[in-house]
Amino acid sequence: MADLRNRFALILPLIVVAACTSATDRLNEGVTLQQQGRYMEAVYRYADAVDRDPELVEARERLIAVGDTAIDVTMDDADDLERRGDPVASATLYRDIDRMLARVRQVGVRLDPPADYMAIRRAVFDNAIRWQMARGDESAQAGRWEEARRYYVGARTDFLEPTRIHIEESYDAEVRVLLDWSEVELADGSYRSAHALAQEALEVRSSPARDIVLRVRDIQERALDEGSVVVAVLPVTGDAGVRNYLGAEFEVELDEALGLDHWNEPPLFVEIADPIILRRELRGLLRGQVTQSPTIVGRALDLIGADLAAMISLSRIDVTESDVEEETHEHVVARNDPPGLARGRGQGRGQPGDPPGLARGRGTGASTDDGAAAADTVTYRTIQGQVSYYLEAQVVLVDSRGREVERFSASSRQSGPFTRGEFDGDPSILDLDENRRRYFDPDVLGGQLGRIEGALLQDLAVAIASGTFDTVLQGIR
């Protein structure tokens, strides 16, 4: 314990010496900077020295003396910049003085700027703000909209303590430039851009004026009227391979999911044509024909006033099993052979006309001449693992002339566990316990696959809808 106390007694002076050394280093750095005429940098070094060692008198005295010099020299430099026509750089120097004064106050030292410092500072900031606003006006007149907006925003954010008048002028100018910009975009046919810029103008202030709200609404309504695209969505179809695996009802359910959850909530600039009218017109055009085609669909668009049609076809399905575990089981089943049936070994599947209850499968059988109960030993397998579905759809966008304008693929991949049994015969004769019986229960297997296919359907619906909307929007500026 005594040794431990001795070690601590030695460490404490070392810490004090290190702190003092560090403060002295900062003091010496400040002296060097002061000799080089870099007064503001020297002030920061002296402040660091006082911060590390408040008892370092020389650092405190030099901090006060050089601080006054730094203020005078920086104000003179700011006046030179002002005279040379750079009020923003001049205001930046006054912000540097403010930061320096704040740092000095942190170490318990107070510097006294000239008596007219605050008045001069205010005038410099006001001049810089007016300069920013003037540059913004010049940029706006030249159509340099982003540059103009940066100037206007900077007028109220780049300088300390802007007046309420300056802030209001800056807001008004930013709103004005956004609205003018949106009008130009609208005239150029950039409808989405015009709509978005008008919305930004509405959000510059938390409570926009009524005339601004009305003008924004007018711009956005004109953008939507002129730029929206009406899309007619055809019923989902499926290639033969997909339909054979999933069944025709999958297409119907996918179509319903799209109609209920997606097509009725299109994004701005996309409208969905009335599906009832579309199908009625298609039935008339397809009378006597086998399948719909882009040409026929294009003719239907003119009849219902749509710009594009989306033809959706389920084109590919892959189903794979992985992590499969198989077990082979032997099971004894009872049967009643007809009287006189010879004993012996037999194998193979049952045939039409076999006596009721005859077990199908591979095994050995035995009977007695008087028809007493006999038994068969049969085999069956239990299989479990993961099953993965990959389903792909092709979406083709057709215009009113029957031309394909865009094509993309939408897909979904879903997986889940499965269990099933395999038996070369009627599994009901196995009389298995409940745990094993589930392997042969079609409802259990159907439920497992149904959950995967349900997730597949919902995910594919999202991919089809989002892909359709995104593709249509890419054609709208």
List keywords for this structure.
477 residues; alpha/beta; Rossmann fold; 6-stranded mixed β-sheet; two-stranded antiparallel ribbon; 15 helices
How would you describe what is shown here?
The protein is an alpha/beta fold and 477 residues long. Among the domains are: 133-227, Serine Threonine Protein Phosphatase 5, Tetratricopeptide repeat (Alpha Horseshoe), CATH 1.25.40; 232-319 and 386-474, 3-Layer(aba) Sandwich (Rossmann fold). It has 15 helices and eight strands. The strands form two sheets. Strands 1, 2, 3, 4, 7 and 8 form a six-stranded mixed β-sheet that branches. Helix 1 (2-35) packs antiparallel against helix 2. The longest helix is centred in the N-terminal third of the chain and has 34 residues, at 2-35. 28% of the residues are buried.
CATH architecture of one domain: 3-Layer(aba) Sandwich
Number of strands: 8
- The CATH topology of one domain is given as Rossmann fold
The top-level CATH class of one domain is Alpha Beta
Structural class given helices, strands, pairing? alpha/beta
**DSSP helix count?**
15
Radius of gyration: 42 Å
Order of helices and strands: HHHHHHHHHEEHHEHHEEEEEHH
Distance between the termini: 80 Å
Largest sheet composition:
6 strands, mixed
Strand content: 15-25%
Mean pLDDT: 87
Helicity level, as a percent range? 55-70%
Principal-axis shape equals: elongated
Low-confidence stretches: 7-20, 339-369
